[in-house]
Write a structure and sequence with these properties.
- By secondary structure, the protein is α+β, with helices and mostly antiparallel strands.
- Helix content is about 35%, strand content about 30%.
- It contains three helices and four strands, in the order βαββααβ.
- The chain has helices at about 15-30, 60-65, 70-80, and strands at about 5-10, 35-45, 50-55, 90.
- A four-stranded antiparallel β-sheet has the order 2-3-1-4.
- Helix 1 runs antiparallel to helix 3 (about 70-80).
- The chain is globular, with a radius of gyration of 13 Å.
- It comes from Chryseobacterium tagetis.
- InterPro entries: ABM_dom, AI-2_Isomerase_LsrG, Dimeric_a/b-barrel.
- One of its GO terms (molecular function) is monooxygenase activity.
- This is Antibiotic biosynthesis monooxygenase.
- Pfam families: ABM (PF03992).
Length: about 100
């Protein structure tokens, strides 16, 4: 069963360029992973510094493997000092 994820990020406005660079590397590498069906970065049109990742994984197992990848661990480490608040992550399965 496919796993859908939306992850919400709020970056300090002083770090927007750096944040986009980190996201570019993360998205590029993640899209190469087995089981990654969709991995898109969206910027909130009304709230500068707010981004969300829309993810679609072939299975929970594929996403679990993603969580251990170096590019994701690097992103988490490097972005942590730039975030204004904790990242919110929603995971679920399609109903309709």
């Amino acid at each position: 069963m496919n796993l859908h994820i939306v992850a919400l990020f709020k970056f300090n406005e002083n770090y927007l360029m750096e944040a986009v660079e980190l996201f570019q590397a993360l998205v590029k590498e993640t899209r190469k992973e087995e089981g990654c069906l969709q991995y898109n970065l969206i910027e909130d049109k009304d709230n500068k510094g707010n981004f969300f990742l829309v993810e679609l994984w072939e299975s929970v197992e594929h996403h679990n493997r993603h969580n251990g990848q170096d590019h994701l661990l690097d992103f988490r480490r490097d972005s942590s000092k730039m975030l204004e608040s904790s990242t919110l992550v929603y995971k679920g399965f399609k109903i309709l």
